From TrEMBL:
The lineage of its organism: Bacteria, Pseudomonadati, Pseudomonadota, Alphaproteobacteria, Rhodobacterales. Residues 6-151 form the General stress protein FMN-binding split barrel domain. It comes from the Bacteria. This is General stress protein 26. Coiled coil: none annotated. Transmembrane segments: none annotated. Gene3D superfamilies: Electron Transport, Fmn-binding Protein, Chain A. Signal peptide: none annotated. It holds the Pfam family Pyrid_ox_like.
Length: 160
């Protein structure tokens, strides 16, 4: 396995275990919390939102460059992900992704007229992978005892 393949595998396996991050358009500094659904095979993330949100209203005019920021110390993943965000009317994908969390936001479930699926096609990501919170504590203690710098994991960039 090449370093690139190893990095891709680490990114997707850890991202799949994280439920949310901060999503926004690159032209606007405002990011909002959103739950994502990882689709590693397609190289994209999916989001379920409401048509009435600022983000969905802006995207109604066409797709935009976007950023999704994920930070989860427990899973050992910190990432800034760039790509193209657009509206999607893919009912099969909505059926696949629909769950109790999503249904709690919409009175009429996935049939609610306000449900909007967002498709985020990844372009690139800057990624930091660590051993997680227990590893962090170990590395800090080890550094204090040995005087060595702590091993804080890997930092790499990915293109999709």
């Amino acid at each position: 396995m090449t370093d690139h393949d190893d990095h891709v595998e680490k990114f997707w396996s850890r991202l799949g275990g994280i439920n949310s991050g901060m999503l926004g358009l690159t032209e606007d500094a405002r990011l909002v919390p959103m739950s994502h659904y990882a689709d590693a095979e397609a190289g994209r993330l999916w989001f379920i939102t409401a048509k009435g949100t600022d983000l969905a209203r802006i995207l109604a005019a066409g797709g935009k460059d976007a950023v999704h920021v994920v930070a989860d110390e427990g899973k050992g993943l910190f990432a800034r992900i760039h790509g193209a965000l657009s509206l999607s009317d893919d009912r099969a994908k909505l059926d696949e992704l629909w769950n109790a969390v999503a249904s709690s936001w919409f009175e009429d479930g996935k049939q609610d007229e306000d449900v909007q699926l967002l498709r985020f096609d990844l372009a690139d990501a800057e990624v930091w992978v660590t051993g997680g919170s227990l590893s962090f504590l170990y590395q800090m203690a080890k550094a204090k005892i040995t005087g060595d710098k702590p091993d804080m994991g890997e930092h790499f960039s990915l293109g999709f």
